[in-house]
Amino acid sequence: MSKSxxxxxxxxxxxxxxxxxxPADTYNADLKMRATGYFESPYAIEWMEFDxxxxxxxxxxxxxxxxxxxxxxKKAIKGRxxxxxxxxxxxxxxxxxxxxxxDLVEFLQFDKPEEEVWPHPNKFLLECL
Length: 129
Fold this sequence. Notes:
2,3-Dihydroxybiphenyl 1,2-Dioxygenase, domain 1, VOC family protein, globular, about 10% helix, 3 helices
């Protein structure tokens, strides 16, 4: 019998693919996509628009996903149905996508504090008037 190990996962964001045009300044040429919204509100929602010739798997371009931070990305994806192998969308973070049943999940591993990679001082802080 194999010994199972657990690691903590922490909610990071919800990613939602859309077809509307997003601002040009949110463009990532390597991924051929635009992403916005994550920094504009405390709710950690990312709106994503993909170029028609984006090489990302179709399921990532069409299905919403939930992102979780993990301590060890390789362990998190081991034995799972990997949709996107570990890749680095920017310096300081590595991500991978897996499919669990019909749930698309993105795992993120930060190589330095997230605040240095994607500063978001108001994440999860709701202003009440």
